Amino acid sequence: AQSVSQHNHHVILSEAASLELGCNYSYGGTVNLFWYVQYPGQHLQLLLKYFSGDPLVKGIKGFEAEFIKSKFSFNLRKPSVQWSDTAEYFCAVNAPGAGSYQLTFGKGTKLSVIP
Amino acid sequence: DAGITQSPRHKVTETGTPVTLRCHQTENHRYMYWYRQDPGHGLRLIHYSYGVKDTDKGEVSDGYSVSRSKTEDFLLTLESATSSQTSVYFCAISDGSIVGETQYFGPGTRLLVL
After folding, report:
1. Residues in chain B whose Cβ is within 8 Å of chain A
2. pLDDT tens digits for A4-48?
3. What gap in Å lies between CA A55 and CA A57, rounded to an integer?
């Protein structure tokens, strides 16, 4: 079974700082990768996803992520964060190559942006 | 946002009582999922359904059962609630695309078991 690791539990940044959240997964075959965001008190919303093609994926609200197959990584980036980006971010993976479309989530990274 | 509603949105119950949570979708998607979210654990899959009357267990299924008698409704039942089942429960749906399956989440149900 695949697993997902998010290295940072809580990240605190000032507005305009750059952001990079780490995500590593364990499965060596074909994977689909996702980042979800959960604003305080709300449900999960899809931020971006990677299925195939260009490993640099652009999502909503200025976020992007890069799939590096050799490193089993899918890190999330944003060049300049805003206070409104304060939320919890979840990386998730499924492995259609293993016949599994079930999503496996990381434990989440809480981002606090200080005005 | 995908057409997913969950009811109730909040519930307080006592240990030992049965509880049923409902997920309703208007997207006619084939797959439906129940997750629980707990601090430090992320989201963990409880049960999922791949069609009417077709369900399977997820990672944390003990103490939970599900039913799906219609495409649009997926029920999660706690037969005898325990304090360890205090959590936020999210329903998700997907269309089961082979190319890439994206799950969309409902607003959640906050359950407190006293």
Report:
1. 1, 31, 33, 40-45, 48, 58, 90, 94, 96, 98-108
2. 999 889 999 999 999 999 999 998 788 899 999 999 988 899 999
3. 6
